[in-house]
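Re: that backbone. Tokens:
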């Protein structure tokens, strides 16, 4: 019986050793720590859509920002228009002594005024004719009128309606330079433009 018992124990030892041997040589299962994708649920879809809406809202300017931007653009437009009006009125055209014929320089200036009047079709202009102090008051009033009319006729020939233009002569009554020099007189022989 001792032999049976010894054989039994030998079998147990063989099973244990072979079991240890087999388990020690098996490949270990490695669990991946990566992201496990699960199918999206309706709740997840709604949450994602809500996040997108919030991001879009944050990127869109608010009504207040839109109003402020519109006000700034309107103010910039008004300032630009005011500057253009000031330039229109400040750029006179000049004439030679005792003349009302337009020089090339005067025509160039009138071309700019024509373009401005086309850009602002509601604008109306008064053209003032001026002279230097030499000559009688009556003569200078007539010459000033011819200068204003000459400028007006040129603008009309360039496509500006005569209904938008009017003329007046001040002769020698409103000089820009009160000096009695050729330089002062040259400044006073002019047609001046005033927007109405």
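Recovered sequence:
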């Amino acid at each position: 019986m001792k032999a049976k018992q010894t054989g039994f124990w030998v079998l147990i030892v063989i099973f244990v050793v072979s079991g240890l041997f087999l388990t020690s040589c098996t490949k270990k299962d490695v669990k991946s720590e990566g992201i496990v994708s699960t199918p999206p649920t309706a709740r997840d879809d709604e949450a994602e859509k809500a996040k997108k809406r919030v991001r879009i809202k944050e990127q869109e300017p608010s009504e207040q920002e839109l109003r402020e931007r519109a006000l700034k653009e309107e103010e910039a437009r008004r300032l630009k228009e005011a500057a253009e009006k000031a330039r229109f009125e400040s750029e006179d055209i000049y004439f030679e002594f005792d003349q009302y014929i337009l020089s090339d320089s005067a025509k160039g200036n009138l071309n700019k005024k024509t373009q401005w009047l086309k850009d602002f079709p509601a604008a109306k202009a008064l053209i003032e004719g001026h002279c230097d102090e030499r000559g009688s008051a009556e003569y200078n009033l007539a010459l000033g009128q011819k200068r204003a009319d000459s400028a007006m006729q040129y603008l009309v020939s360039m496509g500006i309606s005569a209904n938008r233009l009017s003329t007046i002569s001040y002769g020698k009554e409103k000089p820009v330079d009160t000096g009695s020099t050729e330089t002062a007189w040259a400044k006073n022989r002019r047609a001046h433009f005033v927007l109405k």
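The CA atoms of residues 129 and 191 lie 5 Å apart. The domain at 92-195 is CATH 3.30.1330.60 (60s Ribosomal Protein L30; Chain: A;).
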